[in-house]
Amino acid sequence: MKKLLYILLFLPITLFGQRVSVSQVVYISDDDSYKSALEKGLKLAKSEALVKAGVTEYISEYTRLFTSEINDNINEVFNSDLLIHLGGTIKNWEYTVKPEKKFDKEKDSYYLEFEISAKIKKYKSKPDPAFKARIDGVNGSYLGDQRMEFSIYPYQNCYLTLFYISDYQAEILFPYDLSQETLIKANEIKEIDYLVIETNSDYETGRLITVITKEYYPFDSAKQSQEGYLTNSTSEDIFKWLLDIEPENRTEYYHQFVITK
After folding, report:
1. Tens of pLDDT, residues 94-122
2. How far apart are CA 85 and CA 13, in angstroms?
3. Which domain holds residue 206?
4. Helices 34-52 and 72-79, axial angle in degrees (round to 10)
5. Domain count, the chain
6. Which of 95, 120, 107 has the alpha carbon at shortest distance from 38?
């Protein structure tokens, strides 16, 4: 069964970053494991850290992502510390008090208690509504070894970067070589036709992330793949790169699909 999750984002009031501390208590329900309860608690703590830093809780629906219950890991990538905040983001965080499992006799329930310290970056801009592109041809499902073909049609000159994130991998799809030209002229079509879908599992859910930027921002966190290309990465490095770019200078598009053998 699929659930429609809404990513909620926060808009800014002030411009300067700061470090804040947040204490958090989260109860472990019958449906939760220690890991899932901790992930929920961290999501709440980080959202509260943004609010305490002045990234006010003026909530705007930014995008809707279909997620599957079978796919908890990738869900957390898009629904916890790697949310795309319109007003600000958490640059880094650490536990100041590590999670401790306790028992509440009155509620007859276990809970986790911890404290984090987070450094907040506040953006100086908002997304440019005119900086857009049309993405055509991405399917909702693919078979293993099937070729993935789609096109990008920008309305302004832009620089293109493509990523893929799943439970099992995170990689940059374009540019996969530092010598590749990433500039796309306005109203010209960029065809992507060289990607072949691969999976080692019977069922995999992942997301294609298409990012267009007004300037060239090299992604320098990629590691060399077995084929010799600079493509291997982590979701953390991908979102760190993305969130370091001011909102007025970027637009990102998310396409989720499933892969079956």
Report:
1. 999 999 999 999 999 999 999 999 998 88
2. 13
3. 133-260
4. 10
5. 2
6. 95
